[in-house]
Amino acid sequence: MPHVRLDEVTKVFRPRSRRDSPVTAVDRVSLDIERGEVFAVIGYSGAGKSTLVRLINGLEPVTSGVVEIDGVPISALPARALRRQQQGIGMIFQRFHLLRSRTVAKNVAYPLEVVGTPRAEREARVAELLEFVGLAQKAAAYPEQLSGGQQQRVGIARALAAKPSLLLADEATSALDPETTAEVLDLLGRVNRELGVTVVVITHEMEVVAQVADRVAVMDAGRVVEHGSTYEVFTAPQTPTAQRFVRTVVRALPEGEELAALRAAHEGRFFTISFSDAGASEARVFGALARAGVDFNLVHGGVDDIRGRVYGLLTIAVRGPEEAVAAALAQVGPGVQITETGR
Question: Which domains, ranges and CATH numbers included, belong to the chain?
Answer without folding.
Answer: 4-247 (3.40.50.300), 256-340 (3.30.70.260)
